Amino acid sequence: MTETTHLKPPAAPPGGGAGTSRSPEYRLAQKALDGLRQDLFHDAFAYRPLPRRRTDGAFVRRLPARLRSAAEHLPHAVVGVVALFTLMIGTLSSGLPGGDVSALLIGLLCALPVLTTLVRPVGAFWLSLAVTPVVAILNARGGDWPWMPGAFVCHLAVLIVVALRTRPRTAAWMWVLTVVYALLSDILLGGSYYYTNSGPMMVTSAFALLVVSLWHVRRTAEQEVTAQQTVTAHERSRRTLLEERTTIARELHDVVAHHMSVVAIQAEAAPYRVENPPPELERAFATIRENAVAALTELRRVLGVVRAEDYEAPQAPQPTLADLDALLANVRGAGLEVEKATTGAVRELPPGVELSAYRIVQEALSNSLRHAPGASARVEIGYVLGGLGVRVVNGPAPEPSLVKPSPGAGHGITGMRERVTMLNGEMTAGPTDDGGYEVVVFLPVPAAHHGNDGNAGNTGKNANDGNDGNEAGA
User: What is the DSSP letter of 400?
Assistant: First the structure.
């Protein structure tokens, strides 16, 4: 048996399906007319006051306070001056100044659309078009058509101000309507006039609107570039912070793994140090060892997640403050004169504190080499009650210097702050009075940390208690 399925054609859209058969030219024209309706017809006389000028510019920012406050109203003052100029042109070109009421009325009609741009820009354009024939009728003695001198200046000023306040598409539509008005005026009403200034109006307004549109395009491009640069800088800072945290996590892996290994070894050896230990104690130590081994396994997995594909695990142990002398010798070989001063009773600190202090000194000296070549530096290590103080300061670079400073990647201070924050410490970094740079760090050390971490192999209850204190401090 054969089954035949008849596919039902899709239902036609409302309107007889004309929307699906319209050509691309028709849709383009419809889109253009929609833009015209949105820009010049929809809510054309809406109240849109001219905003004040920003005072954070490079030039305005240098002005005194009173002038800077007055500069906020500079756009309004410019429009007012243009309106006054339009009033004078309209009045003087229409009759004797002060002796002809119609001349004063023409001047006021020419100035009104210019002032309207301060509050209703799109409405000012329509008002300018409406005023133009009225001025031409009142000034029957004039020989210009369709724009009398005052109306010419008025309409040109309105086009420029409205274009500045809107966008290039609106400027294009205003010019098109101006051309349409000029052609209709010349064809229908321009028979009695021996001269038409439609050509000068179209050319002058086209050039002015083109300049304004190019300014809009350039300003928009600058804003987009500035916004993109801001986003890029934010993403770069965020990526730098994540990279520094990943680096710190890799470096602290060995420190944490060491402590967990000590816990596992002590938990396995503890039952053999007690004669006839109870079964509950053996089970407790066995549980401690199993948890320590499981923690080590999970720690290796976490390290695998934060490790980059090209990362190679270091073969040497992580550095401590005991390795500072070798670091200083290496830096001296690179051309930096550096001296070291140690105050307080030298003692062994938690591995995380020693590693972070070493990395901070290393990065601070690297910054000195990059940004102040030829300068001298000083490293101060202070063992104080409750923590460790680190201060690295360098003087200004000598002038003239054969070696030019290099900018670097800008990640050094970020990495230092991240390490200090991880240890709940404090850090200040900034230029000194003599033109150098100073980094001051305090890393707190818990009071429970006593002795060193090498007591893991000691036997007896007291040794175990001391090691427990070490683990708590670490």
Answer: S
